[in-house]
Amino acid sequence: APTDVSVLGLGLMGSALAATLLSAGHRLTVWNRTAAKTGPLTAQGALPAASPAEAVAASPLVIVCLSTNDNVTEALAGLDLTGKTLVNLTNGTPEQARSISGWATKAGAAYVDGGIMAVPQMIGSPAAYVLYSGDEEAYEAHRPTLAAFGGTRWVGTEPGRAALHDLALLTGMYGMFLGVAQAFALIRSESVPATEFAGPLQEWITAMLGAVPDLATAIDTEQHLTDVSNLAMNREVLPNFTDTFRAQGVDPGFFLLLAPLLDRAVEEGHGADGLSRLVMMLKQ
Ligand code: NDP
């Protein structure tokens, strides 16, 4: 059955979330700092709230999606959240999620933190999903409503856990894009068209991603010895990359982060280990 829902924050993402809830038939109340952004949604039947307090009062389920968690803390400061479920889909740190959870719980709410694994255009499609952590009972109660956004993935009652997963997934993505940018910079240094190189690059990265489950097993079992590609060998060939970057006028900075990790691993006697050992080397 449709639930009353309030959405606070109508940026690119908040607007997409709100529009999806409207399409799913919920009675929707919306608030945004810049009131003009409520226009397209109220035209489709959403009710405008004049303040965060008014938006919170309107519905049992309150979804917030602002730029930062500092904005969330500021917007909700001093409000009575008794009996509300607060679902915070703002990107943030695990520590911020724990802190807002503590505050929201004291203010009377059940708190669920979320990490959106989609761009606004994907919201409501099967390709989108959201990570959730925090109050499991409230999550289960509202899951049918939250499912309008796409997949729902529960990662635990520790409120910071969704942010941890979100940041870790994006960490893998940023590393991948940095590698992709470096690869294009290198290939472009001899004017090879990027479009000509895109297919082989995508194919290679996709094939290499097949190693992720085996890396995970090595990490969990702490069995890093490999017969695939060991760190000593990788260290030997690293100058081929850095020398080429320099010769071709490409910034070698990315690989200069890798070199000391490989040096230290080999110095500490882990030369026969595979790339999974890097996880240990990254621990501070
Ligand atoms: P936008 O920049 O489009 O929107 C930001 C929203 O935050 C607006 O509603 C803005 O209000 C509001 N806001 C900013 N500062 C304040 C403040 N001090 N007080 C009250 N409201 C404030 O960002 P997105 O909608 O794209 O992103 C929102 C969140 O979703 C971010 O945490 C982002 O990381 C996350 N996200 C975004 C994705 C994306 O692809 N866009 C993907 C996954 C997560 P106003 O209109 O008045 O400026």
TrEMBL record:
Keyword Isomerase: no
Listed InterPro entries: 6PGD_dom2, 6PGDH_NADP-bd, HIBADH-related, HIBADH-related_NP60_sf, NAD(P)-bd_dom_sf, RedAm-like_C
GO molecular function annotations of the record: NADP binding; oxidoreductase activity
UniProt keyword annotations, A-Z: Oxidoreductase
Coiled coil: none
Superkingdom of the organism of origin: Bacteria
Domain NADPH-dependent reductive aminase-like C-terminal intervals: 158-283
Residue span(s) of domain 6-phosphogluconate dehydrogenase NADP-binding: 5-151
The family this protein is said to belong to: Belongs to the HIBADH-related family.
Protein name: Dehydrogenase
Organism: Streptomyces purpureus
